[in-house]
Specification:
It is found in: Cytoplasm; Nucleus. The chain is an alpha+beta fold. It is built from eight helices and four strands; from the N terminus they run H-H-H-H-E-E-E-E-H-H-H-H. It starts with 8 loop residues before the first helix and ends with a helix.
């Protein structure tokens, strides 16, 4: 029986190294090809973003006459905007009683996206004559520069003497029922430019309230109709019977 030829250890090692080298070469070629494909995908994504932006700008222009018509109709409803704010869970948490009183004079809210909507937006608040400040309009703008760095700026509020709601000493909240009486005023937001990229209130107004403020104006009425604020069910015990203690008190 013929004996199999012996392969030197050196030859075996060389063959193994050659196989590893070939595998590495194929892997590197695959990586380079993946990179080329990824570049094509990135180009398509970039083109898609540009097309989406054009569509957004087109429909933003088409929406403007409807926004104006809606604002004209809202102007006929007293306290529309303060009611919408109070009914919004996130905004309501930022309001103290003095804020709510001042916002009774808010007649119009307007969100204006810049022509290049990627660069930012502006929120305008229009007020009737009021005892708190002399501004007829307060504005806060949010900007995104070419490097992607966010910034904001706003109208300085011209407070009447002793009426600055951003100063707690003038807040006059002591003794009031609100549990969050010591919180910063809603109007402090106009002067807060510390982290424009994380301005939740601006985003909530622009993306949540502004598209459909009517749903928040009507929120309290909807709660009353559905019993969302309690209703008769509050008087029932775990078995669905009226609480005897409450009946006794009556």
């Amino acid at each position: 029986m013929a004996t199999a030829p012996k392969v030197s250890k050196t030859d075996g090692k060389n063959n193994h190294d050659a196989a590893d080298e070939q595998a590495d070469k194929e892997q590197q070629e695959a990586i380079e090809q993946i990179d080329e494909v990824q570049n094509e995908i990135d180009k398509l994504n970039e083109n898609a973003s540009e097309e989406i932006l054009k569509v957004e700008q087109k429909y933003n222009t088409l929406r403007q006459p409807y926004f104006k018509k809606r604002s004209d109709l809202i102007a006929k409803i007293p306290n529309f905007w303060v009611t919408a704010f109070v009914n919004h869970p996130q905004v309501s948490a930022l309001l103290n009683e003095d804020d709510e009183e001042a916002l009774q004079y808010l007649t119009k809210v307007e969100v204006q996206e810049f022509e290049d909507i990627k660069s930012g937006y502006r929120i305008n608040f229009y007020f009737d004559n009021n005892p708190y400040f002399t501004n007829e309009m307060l504005t806060k703008e949010f900007h995104l520069n070419d490097t992607g760095d966010p910034s904001s700026q706003s109208t300085p509020i011209k407070w009447n003497e002793g009426k600055d709601l951003t100063k707690k000493t003038n807040n006059g909240n002591k003794g009031k029922k609100r549990s969050h009486e010591d919180q910063e005023s809603f109007f402090s937001w106009f002067g807060d430019h510390g982290d424009a990229g994380a301005d939740e209130l601006g985003e909530v107004i622009k993306d949540d309230i502004w598209p459909n403020p009517l749903q928040y104006y009507l929120a309290s009425e909807i709660d009353e109709e559905t019993g969302g604020d309690g209703g008769e069910d509050d008087d029932l015990d775990d078995e669905g019977n009226f609480d005897e203690d409450e009946e006794g008190e009556e």
